[in-house]
Structures are given as structure tokens and as C-alpha cells.
Amino acid sequence: MRKIRVARVARVASLAIAVVLAPVGAMAQTTPPPAVSSAPSAATDAQDDDIVVVGQNGDKTRLTADSLRDAAQAFQKYRAEFAPATAFQFEIRNAKPSATGGLSLYLRNRKPDRAGGYETQDLPLDSQARFTLPVALVLTGDWELRTTPNRAGLQISPLLLSPGTDIADRRIGDMRLQCRVAVAFVRLSIAFRALVSAFNPCNNRSFGLYATSRKPLLGAEIPGKNIVLISKKRPNSYLVPLSNKKIANDDRLKLTYK
Predict the structure, then answer these.
(1) pTM of the shown model
(2) Pairing between strand 217-221 and 252-257?
């Protein structure tokens, strides 16, 4: 029984490392959220179970207002400790930026107003198919992420980047925060939540947390730290040393490509 539980926690840890899967070279961008409006639900929007959060190993978790709230709570709880300059940012995983033309993302309050409509808030996409969620709204647990036109199977991942960093030059603190946000998306039973909390996969040396580069990888290093990060058994993969206390939050993990 213990082996099964440990395996489940390991799977959660794998989901957590969606931390380095964005296109290389893109900088974090923050867009101020627009005002909330009121509108009836569009007939062509995606249902909440049409959008999934994708992890490093391809695991998919259904996105709901509750899981968004849980992720926002983790972001708010750990942001000051690990990455105070980051925004609550996400990227679309299964569409190239050039293919997102005409796609609109927005939050919709799942509770109708007195007129029978639903409050909505637009979420502008940047040139890298990224968007920022307003933490205060999402924390209420009342807001669902929707799309128009309907894009069934839309896949997103959290992508937390401090200003002045990118995918090939990541702050360790950003990765530590993103791991905790990603784990929070996994809707578990109360028992498994307690187990994940006890194992703390984002801060446990017992778990080897690896990330895979989208480009052929030549090197991965933390300057000044004598740590082997490149995996010999996993092509284009490297270790993400989140639990190593000798590595500071402001240390950078730098990638070089072939």
C-alpha cells in the first residue's frame, strides 16, 4: 500500500514540473487586467472540463474554478518567499503563438447575476500565447476560465518568470514557486492531500524532478555550483534542484543549446 501511495505522490511531483516547458527566449510580460463586464454566456465557449493543465510527463488535470482557486492560494502563500516579482502567468501549450489568432480567453463568474447573465473578464494573450490571471478574483473560487471560439482540449501550464529572466535563464525561486502552484492544481482526496503535504515533492530530495527542453540541449548549469544537471538517461532532460538548500532562490539555472 505504501508503494502505491509513494508512486502517486511521485506522479504529482512529475506534474508539478511543468516549470520549464515554454518556448525558449521569451520574456515574462504582465498585462493589467481589464474591467469586469457583465454578459450572458457565449454559446460557443468551452466548458470548464474542456481545458486541462498539463504537466512535464504529459499528465493532464481538468481545470475547474476550484483548482484555479487552489493554485492562486499556493501562489499567494509562497510568492513572497520564493518569487515576489512574478505575476500569476500561464501559457497555452498546444497552440503556436501564430495559431492563437481569433482565440479569446476570459474568466466567467459561474454564479449568474440578477439579470441571468454572467460577469466576465477578458484575459489578453501576449505574443507568446501567455496570459495573466487576476489573483484576487480567482481566489474567490467563483471564476472559471473559458474560451471563444470553442477550443476543446485547450492545454495550459503555469509559467512563472521574474522580470529579466527567461526559459534559458531561470531563477530557482521562480521554479520553486511554480512547482507549488502546479501541485495545487491536482485535485486529490483529503487523504492524498495530506500525503502530498507530508512528502512535499517540491522540497524533497527523495524525488528526482526533471524537466525536458524543447530544443536539443547542450548544457544545464547553475553558475558557481558544482552540480551535474544533465541527465544521461533522458534525452534533452535536466535535473531541477528545487530541494537543494545550498542553492539560493536568486541563483539561476542556465541552459545552452546545440
Answers:
(1) 0.77
(2) antiparallel
